Amino acid sequence: MKARLAARLYEVLIAVYPREFRAKYGPEMLSLFRDLLHDPEIRLRDLAMRTLGDLWGGLTMHLPIRRAVMFGCVVLVMWIIGRSFHPGLYFGVPLVATPFLVFVVSGFVGARSTHSFSGGMATAFVTGLIAALTVPGDYLLFHVGPFYDVRDFVLAMAMVTTFCMVPAAFGATIAQFGDIQLRVRRSAGAFANAWRASS
Amino acid sequence: MKLPLFYILLSLSEKDRHGYEILKEVQAGSLGQVRLGPATLYTSLKKLLDAGLVSEVDGHRDGDSRRRYYTLTRGGRRALAEDLDQMERALALAGRTLVRASP
Q1: Complex ipTM, two decimals?
Q2: Which of A131, B77, B78, B90 has the largest count of CB atoms under 10 Å?
């Protein structure tokens, strides 16, 4: 029962990989995962931990990491330049709008390169990891927005993450627009057919 | 060449293998140092296939249609030999340096 559930979950998880890769290697990956599930030398808990690491490791091999790092560095440079002009709490429009655009582009490029929405989000996530250095940097380098406690810090990081992921999702959606349109049309068609059949 | 790719090529140098066999062989051959999972294994295999170092073998040998077998190409064998040669030279150099450095 546990093995069947784990296999089903793995089937869902491999959806984060690019479509072409999934189409060619998906069934084999699933078959191999089932073999590992039935391997008496491997405990289910160890396999779960190993699989999570493996999924992330595999995904990073598909991601345009260099470009994601480049986008992250662009945000950092923009922030350092912007903060040099406005070291106080004031956030100028360019300091907010430019990273926003960078994350749209990061999500778009990631989704285009990997042919998947999740690829765009993961690329933007890597960009965001580097860009998030701006939050502690704000305090350490420019002595603005000090973190009085852990709660403040967590809230600030959560806000930055949200700020990063919303434009990234927008960029990834634009890149996948044709595909999403097709899926919506197919789903609507299937729903209409089911409706007609039932009435 | 990265360590997982090296061990995958090494495992295929002996005989043609399918994914699960490669995974087990890599783990055993590297004394547990390299532990691949399905995602990293097939992403690595795709890289090796794209580079022409590995190719797929036609037919399902054990009657399981889901399993694909992989074989080392001539280019793959050459790349593996070059990598081993490079490692041997590095080992020899390290040995000589350590002998010189020892009092």
Answers
A1: 0.80
A2: A131
